[in-house]
Amino acid sequence: MGHDSRSETVGFDKHDHAGCIDAAVAAAEVHCASEGLRFTPVRRKALGILLREHRALGAYEMLDRLHEAGFGSQPPVAYRALEFLVSNGFAHKIERLNAFVACAHPGINHSPAFMICRACDSVAEAQSLPVRDTLGDAARAAGFQIEWTMVEAIGLCPTCAEGASA
Fold it and tell me: CA-CA distance, 137 to 144, in Å (whole number)?
């Protein structure tokens, strides 16, 4: 599932959106098949919704979208699908927004860094290797073992920044 895109930032750039969605869903299918994971219709639809939006969605917004698509209307429907996507590296939870976003680098062991636009809530994912290295040095000095890191930066996306300066 992975090409190495360590320096790539995904989320604010223009791209072939339909191709992006199709490729990500196909890659998820292949990964699930090779790992013996059940990529159920509701999980597939939830991933498609996150990919289509290119922004973070809360669980209840996801539930509404899944219900509109013919799936159940009980909260566990969305929570279970989102939990599967996060635990298998297809999505991330954005703590600041209490919402979920499709992973821009599925299949790659990485420490995500999220740039969250304070004006429109769009989210871009990049790698946070330098932060992890710096934090790793501090953790080693303190005898702490890091198991997982995530960086969330708040600011303005290019579109909102352009609008603010106009």
Answer: 10
**Spatial CA neighbour of 81 closest among 65, 94, 98:** 65
Strands 112-117, 151-155: pairing is parallel
The pLDDT, as a whole number, for residue 1 is: 39
24: which 2 tokens? 């990500």
49/164: higher pLDDT = 49
Nearest-angstrom CA–CA distance, 43 and 47: 6
Sign of the alpha-carbon dihedral angle for 88, 59, 79, 46:
negative
For the residues of 108-136, what is the DSSP string, one character each? S---EEEEEETTT-BEEEEE-HHHHHHHH
Q: Read off the tokens for 44.
A: 């597939």
Return the pLDDT at 3: 35
pLDDT digits (tens, 9 = 90+) for 72-115: 889 999 999 999 999 999 999 998 899 999 988 776 677 788 89
Domain 17-165: which CATH number of 3.60.15.10, 3.40.50.150, 1.10.10.10, 3.40.109.40:
1.10.10.10
> What value does the CA radius of gyration of the chain take, rounded to a whole number of Å?
17
Q: What's the length of the chain?
A: 166
Measured torsion, CA atoms of residues 43, 58, 153, 128, in degrees rounded to the nearest 10: -10
> Stretch 39-54: mean pLDDT, rounded?
93
